[in-house]
Write a structure and sequence with these properties.
With 258 residues, the chain is α/β, with parallel strands linked by helices. The chain is built from ten helices and eight strands. α5 packs parallel to α6 and α8 packs parallel to α10. The longest helix has 19 residues. The structure holds 6-AZA uridine 5'-monophosphate.
């Protein structure tokens, strides 16, 4: 799978979100996902407008935003259409089916109404996917990114869990669009591999985050890199976004010998 182009892999998938993302990465020449971990709605919208042209997806944590509102969502949606990026809610759903159905489809955030992609912890087993499907009322696939391996120090991966995660993805190709992973865990080309813990300075933070260079993760396993503070805390976020976009996309072109 590693040598295949995004456009070729778009043909291998029946998942509408994976197909869209593969095509978008190819056309926009961007396999950069920003982690917009800011707390003010204004700062998030300004960032989306400034770096929208450089990214394929805009990842947020709705529950860290002060004053999250319908107005914020409609403005973010508008920007996603202007700049052509997917909206990615990093909720890390990880409960029994009936609970995640409500967390996804209702409550304060109404995630199913605006998120193109969501992260899912595989620990509850396949019921978490069934619950999300129930919570989402449109009848489309859910655009789920299964968390196979985390970037934080001491994360608890083990071979059995990773194998079970891969099996869950293979059993739900309409709803699972890809993996959050740190290594090359699967040969199947249809899934989009997304890797967080990416920074041009590999120092990490004081709370267990570990960083790797964009080139290294793309060579190892990533189709798209997820970059947060490398961009949001840069002196000029838009310049940093351009730099990460170029470095990540060139690494992809190199891997696929284009
Ligand atoms: N994230 C990780 N590691 C994982 C899964 N998710 O860092 O294994 C998320 C974090 C954050 C972003 O929740 O939003 O990716 C990374 O941000 P950073 O680049 O600022 O460290």
């Amino acid at each position: 799978w590693k040598q295949q182009s995004f456009s070729a892999r778009a043909e291998h998938t029946s998942n509408a979100v994976a197909k869209h993302l593969f095509q978008l990465m190819d056309r926009k020449k961007s396999n950069l996902i920003v982690a917009a971990d800011l707390t003010s709605t204004e700062a998030i919208l300004n960032l989306a407008d400034a770096i929208g042209p450089n990214i394929c997806a805009f990842k947020i944590h709705a529950d860290i935003i002060d004053g999250f509102s319908e107005d914020f969502v409609s403005k973010l949606k508008e920007l996603s259409q202007t700049h052509r990026f997917l909206i990615f809610e990093d909720r890390k759903f990880s409960d029994i089916g009936s609970t995640v159905a409500r967390q996804y489809g209702g409550g304060v955030f109404q995630i199913a109404h605006w998120a193109d992609m969501v992260t899912i912890q595989p620990t509850p087993g396949p019921a978490v996917i069934e619950g999300l499907k129930k919570g989402q009322r449109s009848g489309h696939g859910i655009g789920g990114a299964l968390i196979a391996e985390m970037s934080s120090k001491g994360a608890l991966p083990n071979k059995e869990n990773v194998a079970a995660t891969i099996q869950m993805a293979h059993d739900h190709p309409e709803d699972i669009m890809g993996y959050i992973c740190q290594s090359d865990i699967d040969d199947e080309p249809r899934f989009v591999r997304m890797t967080p813990g990416v920074h041009i300075s590999e120092a990490g933070d004081t709370l267990g985050q570990q960083y790797v260079l964009p080139e290294t993760v793309i060579e190892n396993c990533a189709d798209a890199v997820i970059v947060g503070r490398g961009i949001t805390e840069a002196f000029k976020p838009s310049e940093a976004a351009r730099m990460y976009q170029t470095r990540a996309f060139e690494a992809y072109l190199k891997r696929t010998s284009q």
